[in-house]
Design brief:
Helix content: 40-55%
Oligomer: single chain
Distance between the termini: 34 Å
Strand content: 5-15%
Radius of gyration: 21 Å
Order of helices and strands: HHEHEHEHEHEEEEHHEEHHEHEHH
Structural class: alpha/beta
Number of strands: 12
Strand order of the largest sheet: 5-4-2-3-11
Largest sheet: 5 strands, parallel
Number of helices: 13
Shape: globular
């Protein structure tokens, strides 16, 4: 039986980077925004963002979200008694809500769009009308590496005064409608993950991009314990620095990011061509999505648990991102507030994530699709009719 894992991480082979690792060893600099880190930030800015704006590495994207939220939020007097909310979709990974809570904000969940699965503009505006200036942050999610309308969030910032932080965890490798790396030119922080499971996978790490160099300069100080000049804390701080060894791996990943992203797009297109009409697929925007896996919605008459069990028995791994959604998870239910989440409930109940990794072939895609079709079409006709 052919084993097809759901995720198969592929990072550069350590054996191919021995000379680079030794350069770090000989330099004696292992962290603190060292030369490899600086080289990677500059190369990333040039390669993916057309030499616009600035990049800042972080040890992981969750820490990146925490610092970016703290920096970007609406500024208030310390004595202000008003609650502080971070508006975000409920259909996202737990890291976004955890980061908001750690940074001192209450997540306020909006519903999602039925086609893009990104934050629903109507739901956002309902919450803005209800909570007003108590919303200090708006944190859209670029769902599953898809491009989102950043102009919309610039407008919301101007209308509300709330800070904007974009959770673009899976988006390194995505290309917008203008042919630029997703986020290029945006003057608010955009946070990307470089976890091993992502298209741009180094093991653990992240990047914050912003078109405003002053914002990145502030975040760099915050990420180094808030140390300004002289060496003492001048602002909120923590340790978000990425190691020089990780920067070596990241520089190697950068060499192949466009080839890897194109390959994954080809696999996604193969899925789209082969899947029957009973499955609903995420609408795409921009020129290229950075695929971490292939998400779809099962028909309402199908048991997702049964489908996953059947595929697992055939050696095919699957996921269910993001189910349960955040407002269905006990910790967040007790801590957070939400709009009506009708679409989120429906999408989370039916979402299935299929394997999509760099070394897959289209023949493997066809095998997975055939097995999935058999699972779905084996449901009795009366169930399908219902």
């Amino acid at each position: 039986m052919q084993e097809i894992p759901f995720v198969l991480a592929k990072t550069p082979a350590a054996s191919s980077l021995v000379d680079k690792f030794q350069e770090v060893e000989f330099s004696g600099i292992y962290s603190n925004y060292g030369p490899k880190n600086t080289q990677f930030e500059a190369a990333l800015q040039s390669r993916l963002f057309g030499s616009q704006g600035c990049c800042l590495t972080v040890c992981n994207a969750t820490i990146g979200l925490m610092t970016a939220m703290k920096q970007a939020a609406r500024k208030r007097p310390r004595t202000s008694p008003s609650p502080r909310y971070a508006l975000m979709p409920a259909f996202t990974f737990a890291a976004a809500a955890h980061a908001a809570l750690w940074a001192g904000f209450t997540p306020l969940f909006c519903d999602i769009d039925a086609d893009s699965w990104g934050a629903c503009p109507q739901s956002e505006r309902r919450l803005i009308a209800k909570y007003g200036s108590d919303i200090d942050l708006i944190v859209p999610y670029a769902t599953f590496g898809n491009n989102i309308d950043l102009d919309h969030y610039e407008r919301l910032h101007r209308e509300t005064g709330a800070g904007i932080v974009v959770d673009a965890a899976a988006s390194l490798g995505a290309i917008d409608e203008r042919g630029r790396g997703f986020g290029t030119g945006f003057r608010h922080p955009v946070v990307y993950s470089m976890h091993a499971t992502k298209t741009f996978g180094v093991g653990e790490g992240g990047v914050i991009y912003c078109a405003d160099p002053d914002t990145i300069a502030t975040l760099r100080i915050m990420g180094n314990f808030g140390f300004g000049e002289p060496r003492c804390a001048t602002m909120p701080g923590l340790n978000s620095k990425m190691t020089e060894m990780t920067a070596v791996v990241a520089l190697e990943c950068l060499k192949t990011i466009n080839d890897v992203s194109d390959k994954r797009e080809t696999l996604a297109d193969a899925y789209r061509r082969s899947l029957i009409s009973e499955f609903k697929l995420q609408s795409r925007t921009g020129r290229r999505t950075a695929y971490q896996f292939m998400p779809l919605l099962l028909p309402k008459w199908v048991s997702r648990d049964a489908v996953r069990a059947s595929l697992s028995a055939q050696g095919i791994g699957t996921g269910a991102y993001f189910s349960p959604h955040l407002m269905q998870q006990p910790y967040f239910m007790a801590q957070c507030e939400a709009d009506d989440l009708t679409v989120t409930d429906d999408v989370a109940a039916r979402v299935l994530s299929l394997p999509l990794w760099t070394d897959m072939t289209t023949s493997i895609v066809e095998h997975v699709v055939t097995a999935l079709h058999q699972c779905v079409l084996s449901n009795p006709a009366d169930q399908r009719a219902a």
